[in-house]
Each structure stands twice: as structure tokens, then as C-alpha cells.
From TrEMBL:
Record has Membrane as a keyword: yes
Domain Major facilitator superfamily (MFS) profile: 22-427
Name under which the protein is recorded: Predicted arabinose efflux permease, MFS family
Matching SUPFAM superfamilies: MFS general substrate transporter
Location(s) in or outside the cell: Cell membrane
Organism expressing this protein natively: Jatrophihabitans endophyticus
PROSITE patterns listed in its UniProt record: MFS, SUGAR_TRANSPORT_1
InterPro entries, alphabetized: MFS, MFS_dom, MFS_trans_sf, MFS_Transporters, Sugar_transporter_CS
Membrane-traversing stretches: 22-40, 52-77, 89-106, 118-138, 145-169, 175-194, 221-242, 254-277, 284-306, 312-335, 347-370, 382-399
Amino acid sequence: MQTDRSTHLDGRRRARRLPDRAAFWLLASVIVAFLAASSAPTPLYATYAAEWHFSPVTTTVVFGVYAISVLVTLLALGRLSDHVGRRPVLLAALAVQLVATAAFLTADGVPGLMAARIVQGIATGAAASAIGAGLIDLDSRRGTLVNAVVTPLGTGLGALGAGVLVQFLPAPTRLVYWLLLGVFAVQAAGVLAMRETVSRAPGAVRSLVPEFALPPPARRALLVATPALIAAWALPSFFASLGPGLVRTVTGSGSVLLGGLPLFLLASAAALSTLLLRNADPDRVMLAGTAGIVLGVAATLVAVAVDSSALFFGTVFVAGLGFGAAFQGGVRTVLPLARPHERAGLLSLVYVVSYLALGIPAMIGGLLAVHNADLPGTAREYGLAVIVLALLAAASLLVRGRADRSAPVVVEQLCPRETARQACPTS
């Protein structure tokens, strides 16, 4: 009788579980929401500066503390979900994100704003690798693709969405955060309803000690992909720090919505190129991406020099195509080489590289903009640095090209030939 009752209860619990397909898209929506929340304050900085009377240097510092908190959290918690499970880490991250969003609502000065950004960075760092690994757990073939698509897309949607709210709706420093609170609460309920995708493993406490442990098959792949990842993520930092000022230069408009448009175009183009090139060879995709970055940034600098708004927005889109290709090529090269219990740790390293490339150049660009009254000149110096990074990445790929032709053989030792390029569903 007791056995029958237990079986009945287990059956009811399973019936209430979210189907894996729905759970997959739930996780994708969570990372979009987290990254949208991270970029949502960007269009608000001008409003904050007017209300609280701070300089552009403060804006740069606020961006910097977020990037640092993400990096520190990735290093400390990046492998935790491989040991305790994806759901506990995601639920904790969502709880912290709710606290961060409430902190934005109640912030009444720079210290409150910085505190909110630090807490937000902790939430994003905790969630990033757990979500990425969870996507691959649920669908190993599509997980790597969706990881690459939603990362830039979330950033762009946050900047544009917040810009729309600031431009057209009341209470600009409040409304966006109330909306995000509702989104995160619904997503937390969804995570509660999904099944755990990885079994618990010993070593949770030991995993909190930062450690750059790479699965042997992925070491060379990450080494090859790193220059392309750095070049790719230096690009959105270029438009995050200098984009609004460049828009004012080429359009003569101070519109908050227009100021967020370059980041949105960049992200949309990145998502498009990721989808279009999803079946192409990852190394060739990375190489094409670096070429797109060089072409797009060079043309953007020309657009600024000739004061052409149409050319400027068009070339941002071209640069975005390169950004998406370089990033997804790197992700698809590295992630399939990790087994389930290694995925979160490996993905955290990919994100560490990406956030370093995003955060450090953005802070440098912001400081250059403050100390150099010639914004086009600052953009030219920064843009040339991004071009050099992309050229170095391309050279690295070409030099290692012949040696890396042996990489599919290594992959095939772990999984069948037909899955070697996309994912390795090992257990």
C-alpha cells in the first residue's frame, strides 16, 4: 500500500515537471533576461548623471565594478553546478538577481547604483555557466548554438528596450526594473518546475577555489579560440563605451533611443550570423568573423570621419556579423569537447575570457573619452586597437590551421563522426 502511494506521488511529481523542450527555452530566456538586465542601465546613465551630478568617469567605474563582480563570481562559482546541480545554482542566481533589481529601484545615489551593479554581476556570473551547461545537457546539438545566439542578443535587447522606455514612457529609472522583477519571478517558478539535468558529484567545496582546469581534449581548442573571443568581445565594449557619443556626432541627435541603437544592431547581426553559419566549420567561421570585425570597424571609422549616419549604422551591422561569427565559432570549437561534468567549468573559462575582453577595453575607452575631447580621435585609436586584435586572431588561426586539422580525429575518439563538428553527447 505504501509502495503504491509512493509510486503514485512520484508519478504526480513527474507529471508536474516541465518538459525538456520547454525547459530548454526557459533557460535560453533566463540568460537573455540576465544579459538584458545587465545592459538596461546603459541608457539610464545620462539620467542618473543629471540627477546625481556625476561625471563620465563615474559611469566608467560603475561599468567596471559590474564586470569585475561577474569575473570574480565566474572564477569562484563557475564549476559549482557540475557538483550540486544546475537548478540550485540557477534558483540562487535568480534570487540574487531579484535583490539586485530591487536595489536599482531603491538606489538614490552613486553608492546605491554601484552596490546594485555589484550584486547584479554576482547573479550573472553565478548563472552564466550553469545555464550554458544546462542548455547542452538538455539538447547537446542545439545547446552550443543557442548559447552563442542568446549571449549577444540579450545585451542588445536590454539596451534597446531600456532606451524605448526612457524615450517614450514615464518613470524611466523605475519602470524597466519593475518589468524585470516580474520576468525574474516567473522564470524562478519555471526553474522550480524543470528537472535536474546533471547528477550530483563530490567536490562542491573544492570547486569554489578558482582553478583553470581544462579537459585535455579542449586545451588546444581553447588556446586557438581565445584570440578570436577577445577580438569579438572587444567590439561590443567599443560601442558600449563610445557608441552613444559617436551617434551624437554623426546624427546631431541626443536621442537615448538612437544612442542604444548601435549595440542593438551589433547584437542582432551577431545573432543572424550565428544562425546562418551554424553548420559551417567552426575554424572557418572564426576566421570569417575576424575578417568581418576588421572590415566593419574600419568602415565605421570611415563613417565617423565623413559624418554619415546611414553608413555608420550599416557598418555597425557588418561588424556585428563578424562579432557573431567569431564568438560562435569559438564556442562551437571548445564546448563539444567537454563531458557533462566538465561543461560548466569549461564554459566559465570561455565567459571569463569574454568578460575580460568586454570589461577592460570599455573602461579604457571611457577614460580615454573623458581625457580626450576629440571623440572621433578616441574612437579611431580604440577602433585601430580592435582591428589589430582581430588581425592577430586571424593570423593565429591561419598559423595553427594545419595542425588543427587533426582536431576532428580527437573529437571522434569521444563521439561519432556525425556529431564531431557540433556536439559531443558523451555521458
